[in-house]
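Deliverable D4.2, example record:
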Amino acid sequence: MNVSISRAICKFTLVGAALSLSLPALAHTVLWGSSSEGKNPGSIFTIDATTGKAELVGPSGLGDEISDIAVDPSTGTLYGILGSACTGATLITIDQESGEASVVGVIEGEGFSGSGEASKKHKKKSKSKHGSATNNSGKDKQPDGNGKGKGECPGGSDALAFGLDGTLYVGGWNGGTHGGKILTVDKTSGAVLKNVEIESVQGSPAYLAGMATSPDGSIWVSHGANVQAKLRIIDPDTGHFTSTLGLKDKKAVISDLAFDDDGVLYGAMIEIGKLVSIKTTGHHAGKIEFIGHFGHHLQISGLALLGVEVLAADCVGGDGCNPTGGQTIQLPPNVSGPTDASIVQKQLKFTDPRVAAGTCGKENLTLFQDDPAVPDLVIPKYLCGSPEFVVLRTESELFLDQGTIVTTNEPGQYFDNPLSCDDHITGDPQQQDVMVWQTTDRDDLTERHALELTFECGSSRGRTRGLSYFVIGMHIDFGVDWYSNPWKVRSKFIDLTEEKLHYLTLAVINAKPALSKHDYAKLQLKLGVARLAFAFRLYELASFEMSWFIKLLDQVHFKEEIDFNHHGDLEMRAYNARFMIDEKVIGIAH
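Output generated by the structure prediction step:
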């Protein structure tokens, strides 16, 4: 499996046979891995966290040492370090579909330079994640307190991690100054913004071989062979270690670390080529459990969380599936695809800057616009965070040619005080949870922004014609105070519903090639009556006609040779439009 979440796709690949239902399988974690040497050096892999098996995504094309990798939680971009403790440090970004890397810049600034051998295309090899340098003779050399070891060691880096807010931290060795460093780095240029010396360990400067940020925001580090069998939590502002975890295996050499969203800690042991999990709490804290080999002669030096994977068959009908715990996905029974097709979902948490700025209802919010490999997620002005929200980037290779996917958000999984979603509106209807979706296929962006597609209040539920970006924790905010001007809010909901009916009409027109003339005319007529009733403020009649429109959708025939899910497109828009009429127009009036 070659899994990527850099471009979540809403199209699914048909291979004839329908997905067979199977006994429910547990969701499992998928990791990114990078290699510094061995088989396929300087490459990116995906790693099944249940088996340890690594599969090649592709080479970086920049060299043979990618000592560490990390995913920016604010964008989903995969970053890496080209170099090692003794061969420099160059910040790179990595295409998650091909593994191809692009240089951001050398990591350097006041008191630290990562130019080293990294800028010379790595003429000297290094077993970077051992916590050691290797000269041309191939003999391992550990950096000493001066960063020189027994051979030349001009300095560099093996470790990087992102804070939950998207701040990039890098572990530096020597680089023109004494000992180990933790650096705050500009992720757009590689420039060092802050240089903090880390405290000594047993009287000697400490070296950071691996770094990972836990779900609670603490930064964990490993020391490779420099200090075996020890993991620590570090304060990036002071360089002090606030906690130490001794490993039960006193000879353990951990090259890198990665946490999943549930707080499970994984480690890469490059010397033996295995993935392990490490207990961090309780009576068994420090216990190492071996998961499995990466593969023959594979030396994985860096780890990062990719996402959570489930079998697509386990999402068909019934209770659906819930990869990350924050959203249930129910695929329709007629979905087709490979029997081993999977769905991979990654959560990214954001804070909506418009809330603090008071610009909800006044300006759009665009995410991922700085990454050319990832389509922009454009959240329209009337949708606003509360103030935190989560983007679930979801991918599968399936193709859905009929019907819709039903998704149910569970914001309580991510937020202490999730938005309300009552059966009957109580209080400000702008403060209710909504279901937001956007396709990431650039050829399939009808309105070119995220859509609010609620069709039933739950946590809230919506229908979409595919998987892609889902947003949890959004609400409708027109920038109008409900308590001082409720009828102005209602008029805004009326205008929004009229706009949704307009786009539904365009969707019917777009579906004309997939319909017979008779079926097309029936849909146009029924929708036209609904729109006319709505325009004359006959909202109950408009709702009644929309219900008949939805029934017609299951009666008309859509040509299968059309490579677009017109049925699902019309169904998701129609269900949402009827919900808006019933709950946000009629419901407010009552």
